[in-house]
Design brief:
This protein is mostly helical and about 70 residues long. Helices cover about 30% and strands about 0% of the residues. The radius of gyration is 15 Å and the shape is extended.
């Protein structure tokens, strides 16, 4: 499963598909590591700290993910 496939339902409200309802896993064909990186200028050392910062300062942090 790609990050796009699993994250899309949380990021987009107008999807025409649901990963749990509309698809069935048939096998694993690869493993790909995913990384969460932030600028060193941010005062965070974990994902939980990043989420807390984002909640404390809504609308001030940007993010990106690969869309294929």
């Amino acid at each position: 499963m790609t990050t796009f496939f699993t994250a899309s339902p949380s990021l987009y409200t107008n999807l025409r598909w649901d990963p749990l309802r509309d698809f069935a896993a048939v096998g694993q064909i690869c493993r790909a590591p995913n990384f969460f990186v932030v600028p060193t200028s941010l005062p965070v050392k974990s994902v939980a700290e990043f989420v807390a910062l984002a909640k404390a300062k809504p609308g001030t942090l940007n993010y990106s993910h690969p869309k294929r």
